[in-house]
DNA sequence: TTGAAAGCGTTACCAG
DNA sequence: CTGGTAACGCTTTCAA
């Protein structure tokens, strides 16, 4: 009794037999058309089409060592911020003849490393989005296989990241222009490189402009985290709040609303990412926008190039794309409120 | 000069040599542990671990005909509604030892079919989410490989779908209780089974409750589509609007706001899906909620079972999970406004 | 330009 | 319980 496996529908051998040529000729006619006589080639191609032949990816991978599959690993698939990245990556993967597999690390470095190791044998390379891994671990993976970082930069590793320096400067200048003198930065996970860049950029720009900024956190980079963070921000009493990302900003917004605090009357809020919803929350969110779909496409292109280079044992200098960011000013930021009369010290 | 392929790091042969046993024994020790003597097994496993052995998915797939890979195809990866489905599917895929590949059909039946055909040779089965294909095409795919439908039912095909009949009843009763007498349904794509169910359920419940409902559309199931749809709804003058999904509802909401129409003062709006953002738009959206992450998990479980059945040539009756839905009442629905004094006919 | 045949890494069958 | 050895389907030398 034959084993109950699903046989690969129609194989190259079927095509070869039907076309009256050797399998090697079929292989060539289909993958290296120029290495085959025109009439042979067309004949083979027709037969293949007629029979509905589809090459077995497994067999091809076994022979070539390449799977035509790319992996995209993210800390939180449900964060709308990543939707654009996923779509961009998926489209470009398809355009370059690749399949995209997806992995969620749940904001967890260990899970991310496990995911990479689990996926590694079956893919040609990795797109690591907002990786929570250490630089050392990333370098280690990068040494073993093609890796492109998105939203992260590590020396000597190919990457695509949004310009945080310019972005944070825009934010700070916007707030200063509105008369704010004290701001709070609600920090996300310490593992977030983008978060660290944001804090660094804000601190530096703030110093330059005489804005006092205090960092609170870390908080989980979600609406729930923003709820907590918003509470803490309220207690501090700054007139401007810069959240690690829009999810947190929206959470903070919710909390302000619940507490009867007017945004932007009493406090202004700024986020990062310009995610779905940032334009229709109440008030709409002022936020730093970047083109995630484009980043996804670029990242795939870079990764595909890396895979090819590896196959040829060549090595270009790693590319480092820094994509522009743009502050989208909406209703959540406004002029700083007039400072309250200072309470006499000791009168409490 | 050796070809520049990436060799599969450490193979079963390496392990066999190092452990002093045959490759077949290694294979068994690792995949059918009970078919091997305890001490041999443990020895082999240790050696494999020490060498960092990872089976080649390609080689395994070639031999067994199974890839341990599942595909999830969706009409729009960026619709937040699908985020939960993606996450649920991804988690359960991981839990069952599978890899999840993702495909976006861009609301296009032809693209969806192409995607399925493109992915088919490399996966064990398909999760078709909100498929835009015809029943006939789905049956055709289902005959050729394991398929689980999500958000769609087709006779004899395994599926997981939210209870639209109960859901639409809840919506209609809610509106009727608020005193609405005329409503508009803003339709999505005709290819959407869920959309057709929604219209059917609403019509039927409306008739029962004496609510007049008119259908407008079809519109693209996006915020942009909702903008257009909202305009049309305004022109019609009904007091309640039921949108194909939350994306459209939010678009309609935006348009109302822009037109100075009060929601829910002048018109109430109801959506479907309870997506991210439905709770913080202005006003928050009354919408029919379903558990997408759970649906994703269930769908993967069903698909894995199908794959196993196929391998054993067994065939259970196809499962049809209908998951409960729940109306989440928020600020976008309220009492119907008092009817305006009827204008005298002919006085225009 | 084409054919024959040697892998690629696993699994599964068949002996022993 | 274990070893040897065909497959699995394709690519890629190597010859002709």
TrEMBL record, chains A, B:
One of its GO terms (molecular function) is DNA binding. Keywords: DNA-binding, Repressor, Transcription, Transcription regulation. The keyword Transcription applies. SUPFAM superfamilies: lambda repressor-like DNA-binding domains, Periplasmic binding protein-like I. Residues 10-64 form the HTH lacI-type domain. The keyword Methyltransferase does not apply. InterPro entries: HTH_LacI (IPR000843), LacI/GalR-like_sensor (IPR046335), Lambda_DNA-bd_dom_sf (IPR010982), Peripla_BP_I (IPR028082). It holds the Pfam family Peripla_BP_3. It comes from the Bacteria. Gene3D superfamilies: 3.40.50.2300, lambda repressor-like DNA-binding domains. PANTHER family: HTH-TYPE TRANSCRIPTIONAL REPRESSOR PURR-RELATED, LACI-RELATED TRANSCRIPTIONAL REPRESSOR. This is LacI family DNA-binding transcriptional regulator. It comes from Terrabacter terrigena.
């Amino acid at each position: 009794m034959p084993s109950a496996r699903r046989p690969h529908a129609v194989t190259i051998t079927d095509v070869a037999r039907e076309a009256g040529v050797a399998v090697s000729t079929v292989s060539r006619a289909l993958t290296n058309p120029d290495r085959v006589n025109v009439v042979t080639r067309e004949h083979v191609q027709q037969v293949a089409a007629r029979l509905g032949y589809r090459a077995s990816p497994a067999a091809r991978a076994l022979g070539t060592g390449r799977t035509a599959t790319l992996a995209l690993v993210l800390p939180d698939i449900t964060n709308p911020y990543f939707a654009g990245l996923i779509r961009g990556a998926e489209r470009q993967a398809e355009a370059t003849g690749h399949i995209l597999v997806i992995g969620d690390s749940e904001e967890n470095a260990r899970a991310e490393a496990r995911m990479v190791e689990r996926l590694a044998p079956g893919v040609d390379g990795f797109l690591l989005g907002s990786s929570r891994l250490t630089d050392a671990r990333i370098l280690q993976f990068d040494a073993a296989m093609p890796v492109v970082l998105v939203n992260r930069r590590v020396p000597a590793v190919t990457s695509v990241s949004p310009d945080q320096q310019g972005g944070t400067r825009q934010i700070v200048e916007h707030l200063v222009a509105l008369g704010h003198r004290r701001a709070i930065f609600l920090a996300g996970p310490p593992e977030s490189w983008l978060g660290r860049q944001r804090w660094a950029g804000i601190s530096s720009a703030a110093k330059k402009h005489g804005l006092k900024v205090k960092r609170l956190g870390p908080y989980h980079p979600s609406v729930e985290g923003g709820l907590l963070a918003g509470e803490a921000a309220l207690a501090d009493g700054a007139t401007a709040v810069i959240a690690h990302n829009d999810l947190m900003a929206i959470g903070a917004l919710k909390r302000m609303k619940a507490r009867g605090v007017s945004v932007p009357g009493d406090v202004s809020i700024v986020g990062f990412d310009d995610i779905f919803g940032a334009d229709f929350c109440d008030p709409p969110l002022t936020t730093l926008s970047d083109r995630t779909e484009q980043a996804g496409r670029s990242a795939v292109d870079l990764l595909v190039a890396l895979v090819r280079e590896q196959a040829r044992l060549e090595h270009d200098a790693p590319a480092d794309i820094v994509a522009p960011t743009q502050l989208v000013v909406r209703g959540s930021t406004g002029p700083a409120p007039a400072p309250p009369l200072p309470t006499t010290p000791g009168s409490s």
